[in-house]
Amino acid sequence: MENSANKTEKSKVVNKMRFYAIFDKKSEKFFTPNVKPNNACALRDLESFCKSKNSIIGQFPKDFSMYYLGYIDEDNGEMFGEKQLIGEAQDYVEIENN
Prior knowledge:
6-stranded antiparallel sheet; alpha+beta; 98 residues
């Protein structure tokens, strides 16, 4: 029979900070990571950058990708996860009609 401490530990909700970063293929470097609640919010940011012709991402979308880097458990500081490609900037460029 399980004691109450084990039940509490198993039912504990992990508070996650999910980290995302844009990768620059030309420099082979990641931008400073950002915290987002999920992939959809991170990709929305990438889409916004692509629509801005004043941003380097908007000017050269083939050079950039968005990655999920993992998460940190806010309660104990442990890091988890593996880097995963979640989107290519070029997929968010609007095709201009001539």
